[in-house]
Write a structure and sequence with these properties.
Layout: H1 8-20, H2 22-26, E1 35-39, E2 49-52, E3 56-59, E4 65-68, E5 76-80, E6 88-98, E7 104-113, E8 116-123, E9 127-134, E10 137-145, E11 154-161, E12 164-169, E13 172-178, E14 186-192, E15 195-205, E16 251-255, H3 266-271, E17 281-285, E18 288-291, E19 294-296, E20 303-307, E21 315-319, H4 334-337, E22 341-343, E23 349-357, E24 374-376, E25 381-389, E26 395-397, E27 407-411, E28 414-417, E29 419-424, E30 427-431, E31 434-437, E32 448-452, E33 462-465, E34 468-471, E35 480-482, E36 496-500, E37 503-504, E38 525-529, H5 555-560
Parallel strand pairs: 16-17, 17-20, 18-21, 19-22, 20-23, 21-23, 22-24, 23-25, 24-26, 25-27, 25-28, 26-29, 27-30, 28-31, 29-32, 30-33, 31-34, 32-35, 33-36, 34-37, 36-38
Antiparallel strand pairs: 1-15, 2-5, 3-4, 4-15, 5-14, 6-11, 6-15, 7-8, 7-14, 8-9, 9-10, 11-12, 12-13
Length: 569
């Protein structure tokens, strides 16, 4: 959590003013005894905030203020605080600078990830909306007509207590509703096809949940109960349930580099997990850079890695082996051996941390420079708000064998790289993730996002849904969505990849699929569906799902398997 650096007297006065202002907002005073977070940006930096899209900075106004200056960004977000926050009231001053017909400027509460949160949004046409957003899907909770003036400051406020959500704009109730979207989460600010300034962000701890929601303007209650998308029946006629935790109560340990925890290395904490573990074992990792290789063995399922702060940048597990790096005993590590983190244990989860491989390509002249950050060879894996950093072959999503299916759900994650940086035969769903292509300095080819090697008997490989594809490359039309990888020339590795309902940047080629090692991409199972953005142009070289086919390619279908697994909230 970031502490504001403004003088104490100013902070206390601002807090007192905010607390006194609570009474008229809803007609009933609400006690908020503790300040969780405040920022008026007088320090001139964004420390304590994590970015997801857009161009954010502290700009001069009548006082320093946070600014998002990219009008062409459809979903620019900035988050702060702790993922463990439950009941909370968040308030901020908001000034739309541009707000076209499809634009939006918003304040976010109880964000469980980059695409799931409660939102109070200003829209053109004097519309203010209170909404629940789950993985990009919006459920309205309340709407009000209120003057929204470009270039003028408005005060937005959201209170979340238990399952009750309420919103105000300039002291006027917008609406209220009930929802079970998420029990805890951070706060944030957001723009969509708009630019804006934000100032005087204040988060206070909420009181007990009220027994009923207050009425909305006009006396007519509004609201809804946002729920998860219904799961799709798995293809097996007789699914067996996902194995449950049948052992003793949940156990845990703490890793801290300064020695104040149970262990100083992540691998030492994994080594302490009992072999044959049958219940969830949570390893909480405190801030630090852990330069080590880590392996979670197949005999140790139900292991969780959790970054302690809720900000994935604070906890980094990293090493720098590449495929061509010499091993101490002779030979080289190879692609799989280069992994900083290897996951062989089923039912692994990771939240709020970073996995990286920082192999320096410029400093070495190896014949093989694949450098894996994470290798997965297990089933039923969940990565939530996790960053994967590398260059070539960043994320190797595989399975235990060619006959095994390895499923993983990547929610609100960030993956970066250049060549084949998401690859393998695993079944993976990337839901609401940012997929960033790094600049290779080329004006014609800045790499390939995927290299799937899905086995022919598996209908589901890699699915990207509600994602945004970004780049730091200067040249447009230089990145491929993917190419078909046939390991060792295996003719039964017929890659399967779908990009759907995602925003593709201008770096994506108009003909985004390409051949690999003599195998034609046209023989693979590549498709798109209802993408948007400058890189989404439909051409003859871009197979599209039909509306009839689309329901077969959903996150639930990809992950269900024969045991009906559904990790999607």
């Amino acid at each position: 959590m970031r502490r504001s650096r403004r003088p104490l007297a100013v902070a206390v006065a601002a807090l007192a003013t905010a607390l006194l202002a609570l009474t008229p907002l809803g007609g009933t005073p609400v006690a908020h005894a503790a300040t969780l977070f405040s920022d008026d940006f007088t320090d001139g930096d964004l420390a304590g905030w994590s970015r997801s899209g857009g161009s954010w900075s502290v700009a001069a106004d009548d006082s320093p203020a946070l600014q998002q200056s990219r009008a062409d960004t459809g979903d620019a977000r900035l988050f702060a605080g702790s993922a463990s926050w439950a009941d909370q009231a968040v308030q901020a001053r908001v000034k739309p600078l541009t707000l076209p017909g499809d634009g939006m400027v918003a304040l976010l509460a109880r964000a469980s990830g980059a695409t799931s949160y409660y939102r109070l949004a200003l829209h053109a046409g004097d519309q203010v909306r209170l909404e629940a957003v789950r993985s990009g899907r919006v459920t309205p909770l309340g709407t009000a007509s209120h003057p929204v003036t470009v270039g003028a400051w408005h005060t937005l406020r959201i209170e979340v207590a238990g399952t009750v959500i309420r919103g105000w704009v300039d002291g006027v109730p917008v609406g209220s509703g009930t929802g079970t979207l998420t029990a805890t989460g951070r706060i944030g600010v957001q723009t969509g096809h708009a630019t804006a300034r934000f100032d005087d962000v204040l988060v206070t701890r909420g009181g007990p949940a009220p027994t009923s929601a207050p009425p909305t303007p006009g006396g007519t209650p509004t609201g809804g109960s946002p729920t998860a998308t219904p799961s799709v029946t798995p293809p097996s006629a007789s699914p067996t349930p996902t194995p449950t935790d049948t052992g003793p109560a949940q156990r845990s340990s703490v890793v801290d580099p300064d020695g104040s925890g149970d262990f100083t290395s992540v691998q030492a904490a994994v080594d302490a997990v009992p072999t044959g573990n049958a219940s969830r074992y949570t390893i909480t990792i405190r801030p630090g850079t852990y330069r080590e290789t880590v392996t979670v063995p197949a005999g140790k399922p139900y292991v969780s890695f959790v970054g302690s702060t809720g900000d994935p940048r604070d906890v980094v597990i990293v090493y720098d082996n590449a495929s061509g790096t010499p091993k101490p005993g002779g030979g080289t590590y190879g692609t799989s051996g280069s992994a900083s983190v290897t996951i062989d244990g089923n039912d692994f989860t990771a939240r709020h941390l970073t996995f990286a491989n920082d192999f320096d390509e410029a400093a070495h002249d190896y014949a093989a420079e694949q450098a894996v950050a994470v290798l997965t060879r297990a089933d039923r894996l969940v990565f939530d708000d996790v960053r994967f950093l590398g260059n070539q072959d960043t994320l190797y999503h595989n399975s235990a064998s060619v006959d095994a299916v390895g499923r993983a759900y990547f929610r609100d994650c960030y993956v970066e790289g250049d060549v084949d940086f998401i690859f393998g035969r695993g079944t993976g769903v990337f839901d609401g993730c940012e997929i960033r292509s790094l600049d290779r300095g080329s004006t014609g080819n800045n790499g390939y996002v995927t290299a799937a090697s899905t086995m022919i008997g598996n209908p589901y490989g890699l699915l990207f849904t509600g994602c945004v594809l970004t780049t730091d490359a200067a040249a447009a039309q230089t990145v491929h969505l993917g190419r078909p990888w046939h390991p060792g020339g295996d003719v039964n590795a017929i890659g399967q990849v779908v990009f759907r309902d995602s925003v593709l940047g201008a770096h994506v080629k108009d003909s985004p699929w390409t051949d690999m090692s003599g195998f034609s991409w046209r023989d693979a199972r590549f498709a798109e569906y209802r993408n948007s953005g400058p890189g989404s142009t439909v051409t003859a070289d871009r197979p599209q799902l039909t509306d009839e086919q689309a329901p077969t390619y959903t996150p639930q279908r990809y992950l269900a398997g024969v045991d009906g697994w559904n990790p999607i909230p």
